[in-house]
Design brief:
Low-confidence stretches: none
Number of strands: 7
Strand content: 15-25%
Mean pLDDT: 81
Oligomer: single chain
Number of domains: 3
Distance between the termini: 96 Å
Shape: rod-shaped
Radius of gyration: 39 Å
Order of helices and strands: HHHEEEEEEE
Number of helices: 3
Strand order of the largest sheet: 2-4-6-7-5
Helix content: 25-40%
Largest sheet: 5 strands, mixed
Length: 201
C-alpha cells in the first residue's frame, strides 16, 4: 500500500477532523515502516532470558557441545552427504574403532617350516633362535591387502618361492649361513611382493 497516495478530505467539519486523524495515522505508520526497513539483524538484540535465542556465530558453532554423540560401535559404515554432523562423527569413530578392532583381534601367525604363509594379519614367521629353513609358499585365502609377514630365514641354500611371490628390484640377495629377513606383502591373489635383507655387521 502506498500510504502517501491516500489523503482523506471532506467538506463537513466533523468529517474533516476524522480525515485529519486518519492522515496523521497514515503518516506515523509510513514513518514506522521506513524505520523498520532500515534495520538489520545487527540492530536486533539477542534474547537473554530462558529460552534464550542466540545468533549463530562461528565461535558458538566451534564451542557447541557434541550432545547426542554416542560411543563408537566397531563397524565399517559409509558417511553420506545427508548425515548430520553428529551422525557423521559417530560413523567416523565407528570406522576407526573397527580398524583398531581388526588389528587387536589378529592372531599372531605360528609358522613352521613347510607351512604356507597366510596374510590375514601382520605377523612374524620364525625367530632368530628358530629361523625358517624351507622353501616359501603363500596362501591367499582370507588374505587382506597390505598385510605383511616377516620371514626370519636361515638355510644352507636360498629358498624358492611359489609363482605368486614377486621379488622387488631393490631387494638384496639371500645370504646362506646367516639370518635373512624376508618381508612379504600381500597385494592380490596373484601378487605377493617380497624383499630380502640382512642385519649390517
Amino acid at each position: 500500500m502506498n500510504l502517501t497516495a491516500h489523503s482523506f478530505t471532506t467538506k463537513n467539519t466533523g468529517d474533516q477532523y476524522a480525515a485529519t486523524e486518519i492522515n496523521a495515522t497514515n503518516n506515523r505508520l509510513k514513518t514506522t515502516i521506513e524505520s523498520l526497513n532500515a534495520y538489520t539483524a545487527d540492530d536486533i538484540p539477542e534474547k537473554s532470558s530462558s529460552p534464550a535465542n542466540k545468533y549463530f556465530t562461528d565461535a558458538r558453532a566451534i564451542a557447541a557441545p557434541l550432545t547426542g554423540l554416542a560411543a563408537p560401535t566397531p563397524q565399517s559404515v559409509a558417511i553420506n552427504a545427508s548425515d548430520t554432523v553428529i551422525g557423521a562423527l559417530k560413523k567416523l569413530f565407528d570406522n576407526i574403532s573397527y580398524l583398531f578392532s581388526i588389528k587387536a583381534n589378529v592372531t599372531p601367525l605360528t609358522f613352521t617350516s613347510g607351512m604356507g604363509l597366510t596374510f590375514t594379519g601382520d605377523a612374524v614367521a620364525g625367530t632368530t633362535a628358530l629361523p625358517i629353513d624351507t622353501n616359501i609358499t603363500g596362501s591367499t585365502g582370507n588374505a587382506v591387502v597390505g598385510v605383511t609377514v616377516l620371514v626370519i630365514h636361515n638355510a644352507g641354500t636360498a629358498p624358492t618361492f611359489d609363482s605368486k611371490f614377486k621379488k622387488l628390484t631393490g631387494s638384496g640377495n639371500y645370504v646362506t649361513g646367516q639370518l635373512n629377513y624376508i618381508y612379504c606383502q600381500y597385494i592380490n591373489s596373484t601378487t605377493i611382493i617380497y624383499s630380502i635383507n640382512q642385519v649390517a655387521v
